Description:
Residues 99-126 form a coiled coil. The chain is flat and about 110 Å long. The mean pLDDT is 84. The protein contains 3 helices and no strands. 78% of the residues lie in helices and 0% in strands.
Amino acid sequence: xxxxxxxxxxxxxASIIRQSLHHMAIQNTLLPSENExxxxxxxxxxxxxxKGKSLDLLQHYEYxxxxxxxxxxxxxxxxxxxxxxxxEREADVKEKANMKELAKANKLYNEKIxxxxxxxxxxxxxxxx
Length: 129
């Protein structure tokens, strides 16, 4: 730094260089903490945007009442209904994947049989000639 300042023509130039250097050093120390803060705010925002699913409490109750008391039992029943619905959806996805795999295997088998028939016909044709 002294070498850069000694080469400066005037004291004013040296002052400008010192100020610029000081400004850059401060910016260099502030930017990492600012980045950390922005990343933290972004993760908080992302966390906040995920909405929870509400329990389906109003399903399957026998009597309509103007004021309904939600008991632990009704919460448990709602959670059970949601779990069963989720398991059913997962089972449907697995069944569709299994059916797709079976259809693919069936297609390959049919192509193999057709290829064997073509080869047999070609062989018979050669034997006739």
